[in-house]
Specification:
mainly alpha, elongated, binds fe (ii) ion
Length: 233
C-alpha cells in the first residue's frame, strides 16, 4: 500500500492523459498500474526492485520518460530556481553563499536541460522506432541510419546521474542552516530538492536498468526480422 504523497508524485507526470477522454480504457488501466508501481518506488527508492517495470512495454516506458522530461522542464526545475531565489530575497545571507547557491542552481538547471535535450533528440526517437509494429517497419537502410544515431550501449555507459547535481545545492543549504538561517523557506526548498532528487534517481534507474536492456533486446529481435526478410528476397 503506497502513501498518498507517493501516488500523487507518480501520477503528476500523467495528469494530462489519465482520466481524460483521449485514452483507451485498456491503456488507462495499464498506465494506472504503472503509476501505482512508480509510487512504490517513491516509497522506497533505495531498495526498490526496478525489474518490476519489465512488465510494461517499451511504448509505455518511453511515454513515461517523455512526460517526466516535460514535468522537469515545465515545473520541477522552475520550482527549485524560484524557491532558491525566494529564499535569498527573504533571508539575511552572506553574499558569497547567495552567489554560490545561485551558481549551483543555474548549473544544475543547465546540465539537466542539456541531459534531457540529448535524450529527446537521440534516445527517444530511436525507442519509438524500435517500438513500431512489425507491419510498419522502416526499410532496412532507414533503420540502420537511425540505429547509427543512437548507440544504446554507449548511452548506458555514459549516462550520468542527474540527481548527484543536486548535492552541491544541498551542501550550500547545509551551510545556510549552520549559519543559523534555518527557517520555513529553507525548509520548503530542502523538501523540493529532496523530492526532485528522488524523482531523478528513479527516472535514471528506469532508463538504465529497464529501458536500455529492453531496447537492446528489441533491437536484437528487429535485426533478426530484417535478416529473415532480406534472406527471403
Ligand atoms: Fe531522462
Ligand atoms: Fe537520463
Amino acid at each position: 500500500m503506497t502513501n498518498h504523497w507517493s501516488y500523487q508524485q507518480a501520477k503528476s507526470r500523467f495528469d494530462s492523459c489519465l482520466g481524460g477522454q483521449s485514452l483507451h480504457l485498456a491503456k488507462e488501466t495499464e498506465m494506472s498500474g504503472f503509476v501505482r508501481l512508480l509510487a512504490t518506488a517513491f516509497d522506497d527508492v533505495d531498495s526498490f526492485s526496478y525489474e518490476k517495470f519489465n512488465a510494461f512495454d517499451l511504448h509505455l516506458l518511453t511515454e513515461y520518460v517523455s512526460s517526466t522530461h516535460k514535468l522537469y522542464i515545465n515545473k520541477s526545475l522552475q520550482e527549485i530556481e524560484q524557491w532558491s531565489e525566494h529564499c535569498m530575497r527573504n533571508m539575511v545571507v552572506q553574499e558569497n553563499l547567495k552567489s554560490q547557491l545561485h551558481t549551483a542552481v543555474r548549473k544544475f538547471k543547465v546540465d539537466t536541460i542539456e541531459h534531457i535535450q540529448e535524450e529527446e533528440s537521440t534516445l527517444l526517437p530511436y525507442l519509438r522506432l524500435l517500438n513500431c509494429d512489425y507491419n510498419r517497419l522502416a526499410d532496412y537502410d532507414s533503420f540502420w541510419i537511425e540505429k547509427s544515431k543512437c548507440d544504446l550501449t554507449k548511452f548506458h555507459d555514459e549516462h550520468e546521474d542527474e540527481h548527484l547535481g543536486l548535492q552541491e545545492i544541498d551542501n550550500i543549504i547545509g551551510q545556510l542552516c549552520k549559519a543559523g538561517q534555518r527557517n520555513f523557506l529553507i525548509g520548503m526548498l530542502e523538501k523540493k530538492i529532496k523530492t526532485f532528487c528522488t524523482d531523478l534517481q528513479i527516472h535514471g534507474n528506469i532508463e538504465e536498468m529497464v529501458i536500455i536492456p529492453k531496447a537492446v533486446e528489441t533491437e536484437r529481435k528487429l535485426i533478426q526480422k530484417y535478416h529473415k526478410l532480406l534472406s527471403k528476397n
